Amino acid sequence: MEINSDIIIIFVICSFFIGFFKSTFTTGIGLVLFPVLALFWPTKLILGIIAVLMWLTDYSAGSLFWKKWESSLVKIVVPGFYIGIFIGTFFLIQLSDFWLRKFLGIACIIFSFFQIWNEKQNKSSKSNVSNSKLSSSTSGVILGIIGGITSAMFHAGGLILSLFYLNRGLKKIPLVATIIFTWFWVNPFKVINFWYHDLVNKEMIFVAILMFPVSFLGSWIGRKLLYLVPQNIFNFGLLFLALLTASKLIIE
Fold it and tell me: I need a labelling partner for 41 at 20 to 30 A (CA). Which of 26, 53, 98, 126 fits?
């Protein structure tokens, strides 16, 4: 990968907004950031850059939510994620950029409506939901596999994690912290898979390391915003943007 002005611009945008979304609306990376950038640059290039940055920004975002997570829940979903990422990467490398953009648009619309449903379910549900079906270890592994596939192909695994963790009663700060802690274990495995299939290279990792301050700034601003803006208003605004972007990916 040749480092030029376009690549630097992509890295700066991705670094800031990955840090920002990790601290606010974790599914925004797959539902908003990835589709928007895919309108302007090759899809697999964006996939690789986001994968590296998500891996490295785990540590900047994680420092802002240190030990606010529920590690017992992470142990349930991580094994399934490993399986799903392996499967998702296999399908990813078979697709041309054209069809990947179309599938991304379709998946983004499906995930956006699913997230809207998820928001409404969370709003109307009781706080104690630990006895529901999604609470079992088996369901956690199954959702982990689905999350791993969507994570590898669309960087949208956070949506599946949100479904499972919300179902376990996590809210706002603990929810974000637990999702970030899950990525501590999942994203290195994803980067290794992408490296093996030439979606990631050492130049990407080098530039991503230099972008660490940018991602930390995004995480810091996002965390401040998380306390100031009602979560549902922020989420629905981003989902509306996601639907517009997905529609353009499909019809272009």
Answer: 26
